[in-house]
Amino acid sequence: MAFLRDDFRLEQASCKVESVPRYKILIPAEEDLSELMPYLNAVARVVFYDPEEPVIVFRLDEKKVALRPFLAQLAEVGNIEEGRLWREKLEKYLEEVWARREEISPRHQPRTLPPALEIYKLLPQTNCGQCGEATCLAFAAKLSTGEADLSACPVLKEEKFAEAGKKLSALLEG
Ligand code: SF4
Questions:
Q1: What is the pTM of this model?
Q2: Residue 17: pLDDT over 60
Q3: How far apart are CA 64 and CA 53, in angstroms?
Q4: To test ligand 1's pocket by mutation, which of 117, 127, 151 has the most ligand atoms within 8 angstroms of CB?
Q5: Cα of 124 to ligand 1 centre, how many Å?
Q6: What gap in Å lies between CA 8 and CA 24, rounded to an integer?
Q7: Tens-place pLDDT, residues 73-84
Q8: Would you say the CATH fold of 113-173 matches that of 9-103?
Q9: Which class is domain 113-173?
């Protein structure tokens, strides 16, 4: 079952990287994607989900993806070939989630990530850099936009931070 059509288009984004224009990819859907959304809400790295609209925003690797009933949108590509590759990658991911739907418990609740400061308060605040960020606050900022995963902080695995780790997981799970 194919979800996305081949006739996607690029639209120039307002941002440029070193004066080079960037584009967002707009991909019309073959099918209504609404039915997929609760399954994605259960397994994807979700930034935002509103079942009323409906719209879901999640991360596919480093890319931010927004799905509406008949439209998928991805941020920041440089050219049409890159757009094609990301379209294929997204199609494959949606097909995989749909194929596994029997084993996934769908999540119908709305979801939004907490603000960075709320996350930061529960982080170890050692600024050790092991997560790849210079500070815990920078890591918190990435968690609040879905760009990072909590598992990247090894310090949280230490016993003294176990409770904070559990609270953070619950906070990010919504
Ligand atoms: S690894 Fe954890 S404790 Fe270290 S800077 Fe990153 S978030 Fe902070």
A1: 0.82
A2: no
A3: 18
A4: 127
A5: 7
A6: 10
A7: 998 888 889 999
A8: no
A9: mainly alpha
